[in-house]
Amino acid sequence: MAKTILAVDDSASMRQMVKLTLSTAGYQVVEAADGREALAKAKSGVFNMVLTDLNMPNMDGLTLIRELRTLASYRGIPIVFLTTESGTDKKAEAKAAGATAWIVKPFQQDQLLGLVRKIIGA
Amino acid sequence: MTGADPGQVFREEAAELLADLESALLHLEQNPTDREPLDTAFRALHTIKGSGSMFGFEAAASFTHHLESAFDRMRKGELAATTAMIGIALAAKDHIRILIDDPASADTAVGDGILARLADQSGSAAVSAPLHGERDDEESRATWRVRFRLAPDALERGTNPLLLLDELRGLGEAEIVALTDDVPPLEELDPTRCHIGWELILTTSHPRSTIEDVFIFVIDETELTIEPVSATSEPGVEQEPVPAEMPVPVPAMVAGPAAPKAEPVPEKGRAQPAANSIRVPAERLDDLMDQVGELVIAHARLKQLIADSVDLQIKSVTEEIERLSNGLRDITMGIRMVPVDSLFGRFRRLVRDLSQELGKDVLLTMSGEETELDKTMIERLNDPLVHIIRNSLDHGLEPAAERVAAGKAPQGRIHLSARHAGTRVLMTIRDDGRGLDRERIRAKAEEQELIPPGAKLSDAELFQLIFHPGFSTARALTSVSGRGIGMDVVKRTIDGLRGTIEVSSLPGGGTEITLGLPLTLAIIDGLLVRVGQGRYVIPLFAVEECVELPADVERRHANRNFLNIRGALVPFLRLRDSFAVRHPPDPYQKIVIISSGDKRVGLVVDQVLGDHQTVIKSMSKLHADVANFSGATILGDGSVALILDIAQIVAAGQTQELRREAC
Fold first, then answer.
1. Could you read off the pLDDT of B486-519 as tens digits, one per residue?
2. Which partner from A76, A107, B532, B628 sits 20 to 30 angstroms from B617, CA to CA?
3. Residue B571: which domain range?
């Protein structure tokens, strides 16, 4: 069974890049364009991992992570931020909200893949 | 990697975001206190910066960063959205667009001018990058010595030390030194592990906790010491604020963008037209094309129904519909067109990597990248072109020593070009290598019994043999061009696109492969002909002329299928024989002369019915292998006409000629 990952970003090119990187490595990737869509998708399926942007319309990444952590099925699921934001307040806020890790854009595809493999395995 | 190029997807996305940005700015100008356009503008900038840096648009990303910072401050109420500010943002938007679409043409002076005005308006150095000397409150500055060493497996876990360093530098002024004392000898070095530590002398107004926060996600595994540097290490003299344009020394470890030029250059007011693009899924365009195809067919039926009518009004309406449906067809096809640039661009990397692998110095040049082709076609052309370019590099271009010995420049050249020729696009791949080896091709073909021994063949005919399945004259198989699986696949793919391949080559002078491609896969102009009771479409681009079959040819040369066309002998095929038509022939038969490459063949038909806009329908799987036809179309009366496969038929005509010569 391929592991499934929810990739949340309002930038289509980012989603495509994440999807390409991870699906080539054998993961199944579901895309969502903002937090609201991601939450709906997260509720209707089970994901092994969530990768999300921070700044998004409708619902931002922090709100998404807080919402997800209230769901029993997402309490232990790794959630990683992929964002240009490197401010420490945001990071601390994200960590407090339950983020597993934080990758600052731009990053290398290998870096993303390495992290995902490390966290949820191949 | 397959699929659309993310860089291209980003360009489309950015064009959309810039359009959003512009309309938000214009809205904001009218309603300066409105929150929504401010958020929209900020988010557009934020995404352009983030995704741009991901896909190699660093210049655009770093420029956008400044504007984003300013908008962030506006969101926080620290700056007002004044008309002047919006004017600067609009100019910046135009500049970002250039940086993304054509970075080479971007004028850095214009960019620097915009940034200078932006810094002016926002009234502080806060919008300039930390690198350019961020000066905060002078009184509360302190200097810290920060030493850190990441866990050995930190790189594997996705930690990027450069980002940590960047972040630290963002806090103030930093001198960074790498600690390399733990780097093991080369034979023991594991490149996936992090052996380097860093030491920074950081002068910042931020408290110690902010420095610690940088390491928030790696703190558990990182050795970190942060200690204040004694005040005596810094001379007691209060530092003069450095003007923003003065470059601050950048530690050699980490490269940063160059400091902006000293003189703010006035913006040239090079206004770009607003980017108005929408993105739609390709399937919708396919659906649209299908609908247009149906419309064309319906129109053909209408035209046929009223052919005998004397009602002038209906006729004029029908003509009007024809004009409109032609326009609609052209626009729809135009929507699907993309420049071949997106295809050619992928080969730079390929050529670079291959030339390194093969140890050959190769220069890739291109022309006609702006030529447009149907999107589907561009996608399908990728693999064949990769094969051809690989072959050129591997077999065509000689090693430098051999080239010099032959009196050529040591650097090999490959040139890709695309240009329009009538309703087709010609794509050429040319190298200046050793050329195809005629004798080897002949020997190989004779060995594989593709041609009778000693057969007289023109160069073009000989070269076509390389497209035969399993045909490879490579002396040694290499990992690059493989085992002769390439060229026949190339041929099949190009045939599938209703394209043609021509090869020309000079011994020692290089090889040129030209692909002739239709502009679109969906609708072509065709010549409708009748053979017996069946109707057939000949693609119009291949038709040279129509002549009458002289009656005496039948009498005098019953077995010789040649026709004298103004002094040249042209072989012809009787389609009624080829298609086994039993219906008696018309008394006056016509010949349609078609050409493929430099070969001509005449096709004997019973009647030439006229031109026909042909909506191509592919054949069912069951009929996909039927020779001589490339598809089918539906005529105005609802009946089906088959579309002739020009390349195959011309080849068949030539073989007939070959057989005769061999006898």
1. 688 888 888 888 788 889 888 888 999 999 888 7
2. B532
3. 523-662
Is B548 within a domain? Answer: yes
A91–B46 CB contact, under 8 Å: no
Which of B10, B43, B155 is facing A57, going by the closest CB pair? Answer: B43
Cβ distance B165 to B198 under 8 Å?
yes
Residue B134 — very low, low, confident or very high, per pLDDT cuts 50/70/90?
A: very low
CB contact under 8 A, B53 and A84: yes
Closest by CA to B553, choosing from B564, B538, B541, B540, is B564
Q: What is the CATH number of the domain that holds B193?
A: 3.30.70
Say whether pTM exceeds 0.95: no
Considering the domain architecture, whether residues B347 and B491 belong to the same structural domain is answered as: yes
Domain boundary among B170, B203, B233: B233
Tell which of B54, B204, B213, B216 to mutate to test the A interface (max A CBs under 10 Å): B54
Residue B78 scores a pLDDT above 50: yes
Here the tokens at position B240 are 């003069």
- Whether B342 and B462 map to the same domain: the answer is yes
User: For B265-307, how does the pLDDT look when each residue is reduced to its tens digit (9 = 90+)?
Assistant: 444 434 444 446 677 787 888 888 888 888 888 888 888 888 8
Q: How far is B470 from chain A (nearest CA, A)?
A: 31
Residues B191-210 have pLDDT tens digits of: 778 888 888 888 888 777 77
pLDDT grade for B185, boundaries at 50, 70 and 90: confident
Which chain A positions have a beta carbon within 8 Å of B280's beta carbon? none
What is the chain B residue with the closest CA to A10?
B47
Q: Does A73 touch chain B (CB under 8 A)?
A: no
Residue A91 Cα, gap to closest chain B Cα (Å): 7
- In the block, which residue shows the tokens 């430098």? B400
Does residue B263 lie within any of the structural domains?
A: no
A24-33 contacts, C-beta under 8 A, 24 or more apart: A24/B1, A25/A113, A25/A116, A25/A117, A25/A122, A26/A2, A26/A122, A27/A2, A27/A3, A27/A116, A28/A2, A28/A3, A28/A4, A29/A4, A29/A5, A30/A4, A30/A5, A30/A6, A31/A7, A32/A6, A32/A7, A32/A8, A33/A8, A33/A9
Say what the ipTM of the complex is: 0.75
Positions of E strands within B435-489: none
* CATH code of the domain containing B637: 2.30.30.40
Q: Which of B46, B163, B214 sits opposite A88 (nearest CB)?
A: B214
Average pLDDT over residues B52-75: 86
| Contact (CB<8Å) A114/B158 | yes
Q: Which residues in chain B are closer than 8 Å to A20, comparing Cβ atoms?
A: 1, 3, 6
Query: B560 vs chain A: nearest CA distance in angstroms?
Result: 59
**Cα separation, B583 vs B533, whole angstroms:** 7
Beta carbon pairs, A and B, within 8 Å: 92
**Which residues, in sequence order, are CB contacts of B655 under 8 Å at separation 6+?**
none
Burial (CB count <10 Å: 0-12, 13-18, 19+), residue A29: buried
CB hemisphere CA count around A8 (13 angstroms): 32
Distance CA B628, CA B395 (A): 33
Q: Do B581 and B566 reside in the same domain of the chain?
A: yes
Q: Mean pLDDT throughout B615-625? A: 76
C-alpha distance from residue A100 to each of A42, A53, B141, B216, B446 (Å): 17, 13, 33, 11, 67
Say how many domains are in chain B: 5
Contact A16 B166 (CB under 8 A): no
Fold type of domain A4-120: Rossmann fold (3.40.50)
Is B60's pLDDT higher than 70? yes
Rounded CA separation B445/B449 (Å): 6
B160 and B206 assigned to the same domain = yes
Give the N- to C-terminal CA distance of chain A in Å, as an integer: 11
Place of tokens 């356009």: B37
